[in-house]
Amino acid sequence: MNDLEYQVVVGLEIHVHLATRTKMFCSCELAYGQAPNSRVCPVCLGMPGVLPIMNRQAVEFAILTAMALNCRVSPYTKWDRKSYYYPDLPKNYQISQYDLPIGQDGFIEIPIEQGRTKRIRIRRAHLEEDAGKNTHTFGDFSAIDLNRAGSPLLEIVTEPDLSSPAEVRALAQELQRIVRYLGVSEADMQKGHMRFEPNINLHVTRNGQVFKTPITEVKNLNSFRSIERSVAYEIERQLDEFIETGKTLQMGNKKTFGWDDESQCTVLQREKEEAHDYRYFPEPDLVPVEVSTEWMESIRSRLCELPLMREKRYIQQYRMSEYDAGVLTADRATAELFESAVQAGGEAKRVCNLLTQSGLKMSNDRGCTMAELGISPDKLARLAKMADNGQISATSAVLIFETMTQSTDEPEQIAAERNLIQKSDAGEIEVLVDQVIADHPQAVADWREGGKKSAKSRGFLMGQVIQKSKGQANPKMVSEILDRKK
Amino acid sequence: MLELTARQLRDRIVRRDICSVEAVEAVFAQIDKSEPTVGAYLTLDRTGAMEAARRVDEKIAAGNSVGALAGVPMAIKDNLCRQGAATTCGSKILANFHSPYDAHVVERLHAADAVILGKTNLDEFAMGSSTENSGLKRTVNPWDPTRVPGGSSGGSAAAVAARMCYAALGSDTGGSIRQPASFCGVVGLKPTYGRVSRYGLVAYGSSLDQIGPLTRDVADSALILQVIAGHDLRDSTSVSEEIAPIPDYSAHLDDPLKGLRIAFVPHLNEGADPQVLAAFQNAVELYRSLGANIVEVRMPHLDYAIACYYVIATAEASSNLSRYDGVHYGHRSKKADEFAQVYNLSRAEGFGAEVKRRIMLGTYALSSGYYDAYYLKALKVRNLIRQDFSRVFEQADCILMPVAPSTAFGLGEKTADPLQMYLADIYTIAVNLAGIPGISVPCGFDDHGLPIGLQILSGPFTEDKLLRVARMFEKTANLPQRVPAVLG
User: Fold this and answer.
1) ipTM score of the complex?
2) Structurally, what CATH architecture does the domain formed by A426-484 represent?
3) By three-state DSSP, how is residue B210 classified?
4) pLDDT for residue A1
């Protein structure tokens, strides 16, 4: 019974917090972690008599994202009211978009195993306002913080094209990378900037017949791990349930689950007695949005190469490893730092190494992106060049890189001040080589004999020369000059 | 002094013939006399009004420039938010609610140096045609205290008629300015939808609501419209002045229009009271005598206006009023002991019968499975009604209609039959569906001495023309000079 064949079918609903300056329909600033109810006004409090005003930047961010997700972007969209009663929703309706979402029928490419990608269709992307936050830790009453109420949310709905927990996670991560690239969201999972709701079921084949299990929706997931695990858990649970009960998908038997992070399982949420009827109707307080061709094009001009494309290009163009390409394209500013440094004359491999080795470690230590370490593309390029033409050693390059993140000094200046410039004067080096040869006849003899000890002796002689130069002789030149004297 | 119009009073205050403080004192003396009978006000702000009047007087004394309504004592309907003041909407659910902000029109009144006396009674959340649906107070008609003042801006109309203010603001969703103006013998103007910002007007039917003045004469309506009209960034449905410029409404008010073409809709008049019809006919004849070209038109879709209105307005209302839930502000039931009960009991205790009826109607109309048959259909009918009007305005400058089928009816006369009450909105409702401006001007009296109103309608954003046409009538009609009974 347990080796039933089955296919996993998952569609994902994602809420992305847009990083606009102000809320969706009022001029309160968006804020995270402020004192409760300190970022509110009559409009987002739903006071009698207030009216919403549309945030143009939110519309632009939504359109930009819809474009990046290859959606058909509607030049005419409107707002609708979605009614439901909940204490964190001050008006008891949410301004959303019902039948004319900003974007429709798009797709996103997600990375799957072995450098391959998979195309997941996007059903729609629409704008709406977020609700506030209820807190139930006060004993006999609950508290409501409305700082978040009215924040702009982009809801993205995929088609059920995902077929494994890993794919669901990959989509979530890829989307995070995209919205960060576009600069439309900080997409900080810890701050709840992205929330995920997978809809999951299985197509089980038994005796040549396909059975679809009832769909479950897992609500409000806000970490990549919980998305992946909850889907994996649901697959097992649905399979067990199917084997046990044989229940299949029917109208109205969709169930809503929450995710219990402690016990790592999904928990059935209390079913509402009455069926949900959101009573959508066009928001009479807002005029429809007409996006002119000029406006559309000015938004389109802000589109950039998406991370996955960029990653592929780096692998091809710069012969980078998949790992290095992934690190460099993790965020847009870092990728741009890399490319600008290359453009300024830094050799790609060298720039890449500086970033993926010293840069990555330092940015991890400091909890920032590599672009935020404070090194300009130009300085990075010059540093790479110095290392490349032997002016400094690879070890010195790392040292200078680290120093540059803490000072505004030029790489050349740092190298000079710290005596890191390698001696490349052939005459000077030759004098040192001659001295070492004179001082160590035994080693020279072993080296010239060419026997077992030859390589070791050569290394010893090299070391002596470098030491005599106080570490400043260019090893490449020392090696050349020494070999001439064999 | 109480017989002056707002404009006349303002001029005398500016000339320092009268000071604003005197005018305010005179009005409060009148309020002390008539308010116990009329009951127009829900709240009075004597201290605030006196202070405001003093400030205006000081400004003038100091030779500073003052606004267009300098020192004029005015009232506002209690669904308009005024910072720090009770804003009840005539509802128990907001009986103790104080608005944290000023409505756009209140800001404009302040900027024009008007003196706000207090806030007037209304049908709860502006739902009604008699002010009897107020959950807080009863207002009667100053012409006959056994009759209703009309509604929903009944308090504003009664206050103007009883000289308890020089002018007032009301709101009009289906006739709520024009009908009480007609019942109380004052002028009531509903501007084009989008002409005046709704910011701070507590919403009933968002796509229909519009704020306008109730005044002693047409010139005062022009004066106040000038103050409150204009684009407001906080109301996206308020129309930009680039699209619809604001003319000087007073400049040419007294110049009669030449070649005026006036339309009327004979089949609509069938249900009206004979005395109302007679006054209406006289008005038509007066315009004819002034050289207007009178055309009879048909507006076939107006028959569906009431049905259409009671779907759209209630649908919007059901959503607009969902915020009154006892959670964040307003009445919260003391009997609630779990959270769904906070909603259910607070709303059950806070809302009156008519509001509940309309919330239920609207909720039904928007429910899944009914939306297409009701709401969507109503939107289509609304479009047809709009087209009816635009077709008429291709061949006429204005349309004349009665305001209501009858003069003010008796208190309690129609409360038992809500449908009867709805049907009385026949002449006013289509105007809101079409979004066009309309004005009610006094045009006579019936046998009981009750005022009759004449309604004039014109195309979108042609309030200047509408006011001039109304002024032509007012100037030449020579109505008998009568005063409301409460003035004795």
Assistant:
1) 0.95
2) Orthogonal Bundle (1.10)
3) strand
4) 46
